[in-house]
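One record is given unchanged without comment:
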Amino acid sequence: SNGSGSGVNLSKLRGKNEPLSGGGFASGALSFMSAADKSASVIKSAGRVRRSAKMVILNIDHPDIEDFIWCKAREEKKAHILIAAGYDDSLDGEVYQTVLFQNANNSVGITDEFMKCVRGDYTDARWRTFYRTTSKTAHTYDARDLFHQIAEATWRCGDPGCFFLNTC
């Protein structure tokens, strides 16, 4: 097939509101995704009018993981509201030119440790996300709840997928 594509794992980027050494706070992985999405929307794949293919991965231990899980579903909800109001729902129409995160396939980078927590292999089923610069805990989740959020968001809009970083 003709086409183009690329992929990136954004997990090394600081989470939103993570302190910067020069003062202030990081904007987070989703801000980079938003900028890349805008760029991809103007790129034509293989010289044709079609979207370029891009995979974006964020690992399950990233502080922005919950926002990442839901980012596409939230934007799809906006799209459905605009379509119901009568706006053009074609690929290059008004709706999909105004909602974010439409030019990538999102996947959560899942580890064996996370799946073991979900499966109940440990007495503590809490999953922690970590700040990238300090390695301190950013958020704590029930692993099964976080996994359910992935499934729910995927059911709503098809993303995120699961990218298994290792296997048991």
